Structures are given as C-alpha cells and as structure tokens.
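[recover] target loaded
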C-alpha cells in the first residue's frame, strides 16, 4: 500500500498541465502548473433554499413606484388597484406600495388578497395610527422606482393622471404637484383650503395653487433627501424648494368621494398654520436660530432702552419724578424680554452645533415586499 500511494503521488506531480498559448511565457520556458478550481454545481434539490442567490434586479429597474397611505379604506382598495393596474401596465415596471396607517377595518385582508394575485403589490402596516407624514416617510424609504407617485386611497385622485406627472418629471422638474382646479369637496373644505394655500404661497415664496393635494410626482433623489415628519407632508414642495429642487404644478382631475367619509376635519387647517411656522423655522433658521430670536430680542431691547433713556433724561435734566410713570416700568420690561430673546437664540445656536441627526422610528407590524 505505501508503494501504491507513492506511485500515485508521483504520477499526479508529473501530469502535464495544458496552458493556453496566450499565457505561455516567451522563450519556450515551461509555464508554472495551473491550479484547477472546480466551480460549485448550480444544481439543487427541489424546495431547497438558495442561500447564495443574488438579489433580483427588478427593484433597481423599477420605473414607477406608487405610494398610497390609507386608513380604513376597505371598500375602495380593490377598485383602486384595478384602475392602477390598467394605467401602470402601459408604463413598464412598477410597484404599488400600500401603507396601512393602523386601519381597524378589513383593509389588511383586501391588501393581502391583492398581493396574492400580484407580487408587485407591497404592504407596510403600522401597529397604530401615526399620520400621513409618517406613512409617506416610510413609503419613501422603501420605494425603488425612478419616479415616485403619491396619491390617496379614497378614489378621489385619478390614476390616469400618473402618466402626466411622469411626463412633467421627464421634462426636468424634480417635483410636480397636482392642482385640484375643480375640486369635488364641500365648501366647508374648499374655503379654508384656499385661505391656507394663499398664506402658504406668500410666506414660502412658492407659487402653487394646492399644497395639500395628495397626488404628486417626485424624482427618486427628492424623496431620499427631504425629511418628512409630524404633519409636514403638506409642505413637501416647500421643503424641496429650499433644498434647490425644481418645483412644477399641473391641473389634475379630482373626483367626488365614493366610499366612506373624510378622515380630516376643519381642525387640520389650524394645525397646518402651526406646521407652517415649524417649516419656516426649521428650514430658514434651524442652523442659525440667533438670526430669528436675536433680531426680535435686539429690537425689543433697543425700544425699552430708548424709552428708559428718555425718562432718565427727564429725571436728571428736567427734574420730573419717575414714580408715577408706568412707561418707565414698561421700558424695563422690554429690556428684560429682549435679553431673554437673545439668550434663547444663543442657547439655540449651542444646541444646533452639538445636536446629532436622529431618525424617527415607527412601530411596523409587517412588511411584504
């Protein structure tokens, strides 16, 4: 047996190795032996999981992602999906992402039924209701399309407008907002909405007719850079504009609500104005809070200082008493308030220099992609 092993080892060492002519060294010198590496077999048993499978490239080549936040829209989901499939089927690869914002009806059952029929349907469900901004933020994170479309699930947004939004994006716009020129809503919603849009347009400097329209189109880089939280979904065009993106607007078809009732009341408009102040502050003065608080503080301080300076002049040069002059105490109050404003600005500057960017997390029940 030892002789057989030695003979086998000697025959293996002396076996010739074929080398392609292009890899043979010049001068006829023999090439070093090449090591042959056997590639792993691609065969696998039926039902055996493929751990080395590469990710499919479908997501990377997705043309359009449609993000649909919803809350208790069981009746409209099936019809909305059929309309979307008819429109998106003519636009190449696509995906439909339903964001269930804590629905308590049968919306989850309908969504899973749609996904069993069509794997292009993606489902993300929150454990509780977080609001539309949270739903959009999570949807933006998971979307893989080159163009992102957002729309409501109540059938008031017409899916036939999606090609028009995409065409505008291809013309060079980064964000295209829909304008419900002929709105199918009661006057209790249209009048406050017009007032809100007018004030927002004036304060932000962006001339849009309808900031709150749910039907919008985005390029992928916009949704990757704009941070949406709280109730700031109304001001995404303003946030994108202040980052340097090109904003457009087109008139879109608006349909009357077919099922259920609206989830938003008149109170949302008062909240909208408060959110507008948040947007103005966080975009213009987040990195320089002293410019806001300091300007007001310095103005108030100077007014109080000039008032008291005038009264001091009267005291020492005119001999007038200050005991019965309420204006003197008003001047002192203004000086104190001005100093407080400046102090708040300085504290804000210190906080802005030391704070770290944090990502808000939401409790998600399940994700089907």
């Amino acid at each position: 047996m030892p002789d057989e092993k030695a003979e086998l080892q000697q025959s293996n060492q002396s076996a010739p190795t074929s080398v392609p002519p292009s890899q043979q060294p010049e001068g006829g010198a023999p090439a070093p032996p090449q090591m042959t590496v056997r590639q792993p077999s691609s065969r696998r048993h039926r039902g055996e999981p493929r751990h080395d499978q590469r990710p499919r490239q479908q997501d990377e080549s997705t043309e359009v992602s449609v993000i649909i936040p919803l809350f208790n829209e069981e009746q409209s989901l099936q019809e909305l999906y059929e309309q979307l499939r008819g429109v998106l089927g003519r636009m190449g690869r696509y995906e439909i992402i339903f964001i269930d914002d804590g629905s308590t009806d049968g919306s989850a059952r309908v969504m899973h039924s749609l996904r069993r029929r069509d794997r292009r349907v993606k489902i993300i469900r929150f454990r509780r209701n977080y609001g539309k901004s949270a739903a959009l933020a999570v949807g933006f994170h998971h979307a893989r399309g080159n163009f992102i479309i957002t729309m409501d699930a109540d059938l008031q947004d017409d899916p036939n407008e999606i090609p028009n939004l995409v065409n505008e994006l291809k013309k060079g716009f980064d964000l295209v907002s829909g304008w419900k020129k002929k709105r199918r809503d009661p006057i209790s919603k249209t009048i406050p909405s017009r007032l809100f849009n007018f004030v927002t347009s004036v304060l932000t400097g962006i001339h849009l007719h309808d900031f709150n329209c749910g039907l919008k189109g985005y390029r992928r880089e916009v949704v990757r850079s704009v941070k949406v939280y709280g109730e700031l979904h109304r001001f995404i065009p303003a946030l994108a504009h202040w980052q340097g993106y090109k904003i457009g607007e087109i008139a879109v078809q608006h349909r009357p609500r077919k099922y259920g009732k609206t989830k938003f009341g008149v109170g949302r408009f008062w909240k909208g104005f408060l959110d507008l102040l948040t947007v103005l502050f966080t975009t213009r003065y987040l990195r320089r809070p002293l410019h806001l608080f300091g300007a007001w503080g310095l103005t108030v301080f100077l007014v109080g200082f000039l008032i008291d300076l005038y009264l001091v002049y009267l005291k020492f040069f005119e001999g007038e008493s200050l005991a019965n002059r309420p204006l003197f105490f008003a001047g002192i109050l203004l000086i104190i308030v001005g100093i407080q404003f400046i102090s708040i600005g300085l504290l804000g500057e210190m906080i802005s220099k030391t704070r770290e960017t944090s990502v808000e997390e939401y409790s998600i029940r399940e994700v089907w992609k």
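[recover] notes: The CA atoms of residues 296 and 341 lie 7 Å apart.
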